[in-house]
Amino acid sequence: MLSTFYADTFSLDNRFFRTMRQLLVPGRLTTLYLTGRQQPYFQPLRLFFVSGLLMIGVYGAVASTAIGDSLERSTENKRSEAYQKVYSEKLIGQVDSVRLAFPQAIVRQATDSLIVSMGRIENDSTELGYLDFSQGLGGTTTPFIISDQDYILLTPEEIVTKYGITGRLNRYQVKQLVRLNRMNLSDVNKLIGQLIWGLLVMVPISALLLKVVYIRRKKKYVAHFVFSLHTHSFLFLTHFLGACELAIFGTPYLIIFGTLASIVYFVLSLKKVYQQGWWRTLIKAFLLMWAYLFLLQLVAFVTLLTWMVLF
């Protein structure tokens, strides 16, 4: 079933190229679809998913290239330092037994140098904090200090046990905090992949905004929904091209141009589909974009928060 879904979604046939040609003209694809000419073109939801996955896929590759090596290197360095501290502590702990077995002056001299050398390895620590709900729903911020050695080498479960974190919710908070701070490249890619669902949520929300703003046009909600899918698809495709340029040449010109082009495209699409004068269209476009950006931040926050809770 999944293979059939992917084959149907990503297959490129004549309908794909016809759809792209009509999508480039603001409002035309939506108008054709709403007047019943649906068969020759991609379904709006299918177009949304294809364009969205293309955009997120390339942005994910760009993020992997940009932060992948540094993130992996930083994690490996921290782990190496933690193991070095463990080794130095064990080594220094054996000094007394070595001195008893070999009481010569040269051995004492060598072990003194070893202690001085190993003592230069700082035993750093990290301060973490969580909301303690054990005294009520208000929650109080409770900080605690954890050695970097434990922070790197112990599992989240071992950390909350060793440092005496009590209460199911308190232990859960600390474990999630440790996991988030240990994020690797794979986790970053998963987070980027979750964005498609946040963007999908924005489609019915923006359709509802259109329904409210154009309440007198007597259009059904599904018409606003289709319009929203098509305008989002155009935005995704322009950013897909911009992300490709960023990945290949390292320049953001197409991203900037695509964003500006999408704003113009949105205004012209409103004019084409809803058939109102320029002043009304411009005012409503401004209100819609302002509301959209506000709600987009809210949805992005909820998506990120959900991902952090389920991570």
Q: What does this molecule look like?
A:
With 311 residues, the protein is mainly α. It has a domain at 2-68 and 184-310. It is built from 13 helices and two strands. A two-stranded antiparallel sheet has the order 1-2. Helix 3 runs antiparallel to helix 11, helix 4 runs antiparallel to helix 6 (105-119) and helix 10 packs antiparallel against helix 13 (278-310). The longest helix has 50 residues, at 44-93.
Evaluate the radius of gyration.
29 Å
> In what order do the strands lie side by side in the largest sheet?
1-2
- Average pLDDT, to the nearest integer? 80
Say how many strands there are: 2
Give the low-pLDDT segments: none
Summarize the main sheet.
2 strands, antiparallel
Overall, the morphology is: elongated
Helix amount:
over 70%
What pattern of helices and strands is seen along the backbone?
HHHHHHEEHHHHHHH
**Structural class based on helices, strands and sheet pairing:** mainly alpha
How many DSSP H or I helices? 13
**Could you tell me the strand content as a percent range?**
5-15%
Kindly report how far apart the N and C termini lie: 28 Å
